[in-house]
Amino acid sequence: MSSKCDGTTTPVNVIGILLRLESSRNCNSDQNSRILRDFVTREVNAFLWFSVIAITAVLINKVVALFRLWSKAKLLPGPPCPSFYGHSEVISRRNLTDLLNDSHKQYGPVVKLWLGPMQLLVSVKEPALIKEILLKAEDKLPLTGRVFRFAFGRSSLFASSFEKVQNRRQLLAEKLDQISFRRDNVVPAKAVDCSVGRVQDLMIEESIDCNKVSQHLAFTLLGCTLFGDAFLGWSKATIYEELLMMIAKDASFWASYKVTPFWNQGFWRYQRLCVKLKCLTQDIVQQYRKSCKPFSHCYSQNLHNEIKSTGVEVAFDIPSCPAAEMRNNGFFYGLNDHANPNEEPYGNIMGVMFHGCLTTASLIASILERLSSNPEIQEKINSELNSARKGSVKDNQKNVDNMPLLLATIYESARLLPAGPLLQRCSLKQDLVLKTGLTIPAGTLVVVPVKLVQMDNTSWGSNVNEFNPYRFLSKACNGTDTTQRTSLAGENAEDQGESSFVLNDPTGKIEFLPFGFGARACVGQKFIIQGVATLFASLLANYEIKLQSESKNGSKLSTNPSASQTLPNSKIVFVKRNF
Fold first, then answer.
1. Where are the domains of the chain?
2. Closest Cα partner for 444 from 432, 455, 434, 433?
3. Fewer Cβ atoms within 10 A, N terminus or C terminus of the chain?
């Protein structure tokens, strides 16, 4: 007999039997190996086929969504695309606001622009359409959420989806309304004194950069609001301010990466700055808690481990505490609830400081520039303040409501120079169907060119480019039975004499958008207006604000400079008033 496994013949004897047994074992081993190889091959092929089918399905879905987007976008008016990459090259060469202005003149109140083959931008300028869109589109693009997440971690106050931020926004609005309701606590008197003190410190130099002093004032105002008296005595406030501005400068750049750039050393340097800011935030919260209620110190091992892992060296001790102990401490109750494990501790607080400082500083800078170029408005506001003080307590916070010209100056400064040129909204899940029949696809970046809306002569009159706070005032004429109001929008201040004025509050008007509109409108609008008014009432009571060029050679600017003109010098000087 012979063995066929290896193709050889063995003799029929004892040795042959042993050889056949060994050959049989080898044959079985080879068969098992072939079976295993066949099994692995089939499994790998099945996995590869499944991967190919899955990737193909995803790509087909992307292509279908892309063609659906293109088909819906065809119905929207706008300039034709110069290339496959849309209008991105044109936008890089021109100012976007100017480009939108020209496009609206040519194509109407709704204009589309392509930022790329898959990113559509739609600009809306008609007030009625703006109101409809801002009421319907409650989300923001994911980039907005990434900016805050990269800098401060996950937050339930600054996410893109409105559903995720609705509860926290409502809670923050209630807190700010409580502060505004207690009129004597809108801006603590110590905060105003501290702000004036910082101005005096900055006046070591002959002149001060307008943006720099605005940043200081906004930071002090917001810090005192959040942390009370503890902030005024905090020795690390200057470091915190510098870190906050450094992080704000690069936040959008790092958030623009679709894939986290772990390979970039600059990214890790940025992350270390963010961790330092978090440590400082925890420190000031601890100081705030100590000023509210005595407690025993405890240390956060998790935070120290995080600092150690990122290589950050902190030159100060960082006391920590359980989040539950903060819940009964004034402003922070509920805003920093750590029950959600996916939310970064103190992320909401850092986000409020970040966003609040940038927007408030922009408003203060605009007011400083307008007042410095209009000294007669300063004097009228100072006279208004003196009149409001007569027969009442000398408390600026209680007098700002009786100072319509000061409030009108704030509104006019916000109109001429809003915090941002565009108001951005998005509907992440559903298409926006307008009453006009137009459909804006889901995921489209919808923008409102705030500057164009607030500089529209059909809404604001022929003198729309001029600084004229009287457009927000009416002349109160006391009649026999009624009080008549006469609008002063087109009149000059010199023509009004000593007449009393009534403020026409623009809040809620769709033509006035410095604080947004709809569900995503600024929750701190009332608080900021009152706080900034109190701050400037105190500043103007003690100082005259002048441009550097004016203080040196006595030259005076035009009474109503064009809003589009660049001021001759951004350096300002605070001159102490003589009492």
1. 155-419+457-510+514-556
2. 432
3. C
Choice among 99-108, 358-367, 448-457, 498-507 with the minimum mean pLDDT: 498-507
Residue 122: φ, ψ to 5°: -125, 125
Q: How far apart are CA 467 and CA 374, in angstroms?
A: 9
- Alpha-carbon gap, residue 535 to 421, rounded angstroms: 25
List the beta bridge partners of residue 124. Answer: 110
pLDDT in tens, 243-256: 888 888 888 888 88
Query: What's the one-letter identity of residue 163?
Result: E
- Cβ atoms of 289 and 327 within 8 Å: the answer is no
Categorize the per-residue pLDDT at 401 as very low, low, confident or very high, splitting at 50, 70 and 90.
confident
- Which phi and psi angles does 138 have, rounded to 5°? -105, -10
| Planar angle of CA 15, 19, 22, nearest 5 degrees | 145
Per-residue buried b or exposed e for 31-41, using 16+ beta carbons within 10 Å of the residue's own CB: eeeeeeeeeee
Mean pLDDT of the chain: 75
CATH number of 155-419+457-510+514-556: 1.10.630.10
Q: Give me the half-sphere count of Cα atoms (radius 13 Å) on the Cβ side of residue 467.
A: 29
Q: Mention every residue, 6+ apart, whose C-beta is less than 8 A from residue 481.
A: none
